[in-house]
């Protein structure tokens, strides 16, 4: 699209030069986890190779430098999300831990039996199960906002679920299984009108578009670094300061304390109150490198490029009779989810793999979404900043082969 030179960016990603079964790798599984640019690999290597020491309590320069590098990642996340303060950024292992943290700390403290949590029909399991655990612990109720046949949330039905008992709405910004971009700004305003807090699962949105938690007025926002071209094992929870201050710690251990005696412990300041134990130091440093990398390209440009690819892919898939696309909402990210008549998604994935094309097949950790559309799973092709129209063409060629085999 336009001046976006995906071919040039590809050179930053060493893995894209690999072959699979003797064919050039066509990587179409970025929604599961993005590939890593050399800058991130170098940052992680450097964190272990020349700058490594435990952080936060070191009196010596090596430790202080590592601390500075790690804490610079917090500033980078703050800026990425346009949060007001660095204290509002809590490092977690990933989105999953961020959601569990909110459920166990905020949920167990501030929710009571009979209170309601509203989810949507297109959640990732990680935004369902933590709330079910909480339900079984304290007796909250879970309500589910339905989506229409395009995979978009039905706003009337959503609004009808909101009431005085609604204490939390937790929803994806972008669906990982079918790509719907939810009208989160509107939904947050509706939830706030009902007096509820809102948690946004931003895993698929942060790599896809600029996100501004203050403009959205999100109360909680979570995402994982590995989907943003960064390392696994680290992610961020954003929460408004007043919420974090009122919430008790989630894990206990070193670093999260101010004072400890056997009788009583007092908590460290934000955000360290929520960061027990030695953190993923190299991961944080790689996280910052990933943020710097995408910021230098521009998330708005990445969004435009990926949208153009998705539209191109959508058109090309529409030319194959046996394909049914799942999730056709107008607002969609770089995800194509589909089934092929007479085939199982895993057969399609296996044949594509032989052609070097890596896609994900199955329920994508979103079984209720699959149930909604009456399919056991889908084939999902998802795009990152390094994908090109040639990748889409390779996918379509592979699918033509599948159609031939399954006739
Ligand atoms: N939510 C969404 C929308 C996701 O795409 C994912 C990752 N597939 C998760 C949550 C969970 O993220 P993680 O496994 O990195 O914690």
Produce the secondary structure layout:
Blueprint: H1 6-10, E1 19-20, E2 23-24, E3 26-27, H2 38-49, H3 61-81, E4 89-92, H4 95-110, E5 116-120, H5 129-138, E6 141-145, H6 155-161, E7 166-172, H7 184-193, E8 197-201, H8 213-216, E9 220-224, E10 235-239, H9 241-246, E11 257-260, E12 265-267, H10 281-297, H11 299-318, E13 323-326, E14 335-340, H12 345-354, E15 357-358, E16 360-362, H13 367-372, E17 378-382, H14 389-406
Parallel strand pairs: 3-15, 5-6, 5-7, 7-8, 8-9
Antiparallel strand pairs: 1-2, 4-10, 9-10, 11-12, 13-14, 14-17, 16-17
Task: Describe what you observe in this structure.
This is Cysteine desulfurase. Its EC number is 2.8.1.7. The chain is an alpha/beta fold and 407 residues long. The chain has helices spanning 6-10, 38-49, 61-81, 95-110, 129-138, 155-161, 184-193, 213-216, 241-246, 281-297, 299-318, 345-354, 367-372, 389-406; strands at residues 19-20, 23-24, 26-27, 89-92, 116-120, 141-145, 166-172, 197-201, 220-224, 235-239, 257-260, 265-267, 323-326, 335-340, 357-358, 360-362, 378-382. The strands form 5 sheets. Strands 4-10-9-8-7-5-6 form a 7-stranded mixed beta sheet, sandwiched between helices. Strands 13-14-17-16 form a 4-stranded antiparallel beta sheet, with helices on one face. Strands 1-2 form a two-stranded antiparallel sheet. A hairpin with a 4-residue loop joins strand 11 (257-260) and strand 12 (265-267). The radius of gyration is 22 Å and the shape is globular. It binds 4'-deoxy-4'-aminopyridoxal-5'-phosphate.
């Amino acid at each position: 699209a336009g001046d976006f030179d995906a071919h040039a960016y590809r050179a930053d990603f060493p893995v894209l030069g690999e072959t699979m079964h003797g064919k050039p790798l066509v990587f179409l599984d970025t929604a599961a986890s993005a590939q890593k640019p050399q800058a991130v690999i170098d940052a992680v290597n450097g964190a272990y190779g020349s700058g490594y020491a435990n952080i936060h309590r070191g009196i010596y320069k090596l430790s202080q430098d590592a601390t500075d590098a790690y804490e610079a990642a917090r500033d980078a996340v703050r800026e990425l999300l346009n949060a007001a303060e660095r204290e509002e950024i809590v490092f977690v292992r990933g989105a999953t831990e961020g959601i569990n943290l909110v459920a166990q700390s905020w949920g167990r403290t501030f929710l009571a039996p009979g209170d309601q949590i509203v989810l949507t029909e297109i959640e990732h399991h990680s935004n369902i199960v933590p709330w079910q655990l909480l339900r079984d612990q304290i007796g909250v109720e879970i309500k589910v906002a339905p989506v229409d046949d395009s995979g978009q949330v039905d706003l009337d039905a959503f609004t009808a679920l909101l009431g005085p008992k609604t204490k939390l709405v937790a929803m994806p910004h972008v669906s990982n299984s079918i790509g719907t971009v939810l009208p989160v700004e509107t939904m947050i305003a509706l939830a706030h009108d009902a007096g509820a807090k809102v948690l946004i699962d931003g895993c698929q949105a942060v790599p896809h578009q600029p996100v501004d938690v203050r403009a959205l007025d999100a109360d909680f926002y979570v995402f994982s670094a590995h989907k943003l071209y960064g390392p696994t094992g680290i992610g961020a929870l954003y929460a408004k300061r007043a919420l974090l201050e009122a919430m008790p710690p989630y894990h206990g251990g070193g670093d999260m304390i101010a004072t400890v005696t056997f009788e009583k412990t007092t908590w460290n300041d934000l955000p360290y109150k929520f960061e027990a134990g030695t953190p993923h130091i190299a991961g944080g440093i790689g996280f910052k490198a990933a943020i710097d990398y995408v910021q230098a390209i521009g998330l708005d440009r990445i969004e435009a490029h990926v949208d153009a690819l998705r539209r191109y892919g959508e058109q090309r898939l529409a030319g194959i009779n046996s394909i049914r696309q799942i999730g056709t909402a107008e607002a969609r990210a770089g995800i194509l989810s589909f089934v092929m008549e007479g085939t199982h998604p895993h057969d399609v994935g296996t044949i594509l793999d032989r052609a070097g094309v890596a896609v994900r097949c199955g329920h994508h950790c979103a079984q209720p979404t699959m149930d909604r559309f009456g399919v056991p799973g889908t084939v999902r092709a998802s795009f990152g900043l390094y994908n090109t129209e040639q990748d889409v063409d390779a996918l379509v060629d592979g699918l033509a082969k599948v159609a031939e085999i399954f006739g």
